[in-house]
């Protein structure tokens, strides 16, 4: 399952990466406890409640992919909305959430 957070104006705030081993704290909302699994060039994987999430940049915004674990659509939506608020803030209304896949050629 892959989601994209896309600002209509193409705006992504400056991200404040955490310290060593916690760099991806810039993506993970503070009310979620996480263990960072990998990090490279501003992207990587974290474990949250036995689920592996991958954070990465897309051409239009920020991508979030569930790599391992099962969540309901409602649980995924709650998490993605929390990530959106964590990065852009609660007042920013220009961010759209997409469920993304591969476009057939």
Question: How does this structure look, described?
Answer:
- By secondary structure, the chain is α+β, with helices and mostly antiparallel strands.
- The protein has one domain.
- Helices cover 15% and strands 37% of the residues.
- It contains one helix and six strands; from the N terminus they run βββββαβ.
- The protein has one helix spanning 73-88; strands at residues 2-7, 35-40, 43-48, 51-57, 61-68, 95-100.
- The protein has a six-stranded antiparallel β-sheet, with helices on one face.
- Strand 2 (35-40) and strand 3 form a beta hairpin.
- The longest helix is centred in the last third of the chain and has 16 residues, at 73-88.
- The mean pLDDT is 92.
- This is DUF3630 family protein.
Largest sheet: 6 strands, antiparallel
- Indicate the overall shape: globular
Specify Rg, calculated over alpha carbons.
13 Å
**Roughly what fraction of the amino acids lie in strands?**
35-45%
N→C terminal distance: 20 Å
- Assign the structural class, choosing from mainly alpha, mainly beta, alpha/beta, alpha+beta, or little secondary structure: alpha+beta
Number of strands: 6
**Uncertain segments:** none
Characterize the quaternary organization of these chains. single chain
Give the H and E element order.
EEEEEHE
Helix content: 10-25%
Instruction: Output mean pLDDT.
Output: 92
Number of helices: 1
The spatial strand order of the largest sheet comes to: 2-3-4-5-1-6
Number of domains: 1
Protein name: DUF3630 family protein
């Amino acid at each position: 399952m892959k989601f994209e957070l896309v600002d209509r104006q193409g705006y992504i705030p400056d991200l404040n990466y955490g310290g060593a081993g916690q760099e991806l704290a810039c993506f993970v909302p503070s009310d979620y406890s996480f263990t960072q699994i990998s990090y490279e060039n501003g992207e990587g994987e974290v474990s949250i409640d036995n689920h592996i999430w991958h954070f990465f940049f897309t051409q239009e915004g920020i991508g979030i992919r569930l790599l391992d674990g099962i969540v309901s659509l409602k649980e995924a939506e709650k998490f993605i909305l929390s990530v959106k608020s964590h990065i852009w803030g609660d007042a920013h209304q220009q961010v759209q959430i997409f469920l993304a896949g591969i476009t057939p050629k």
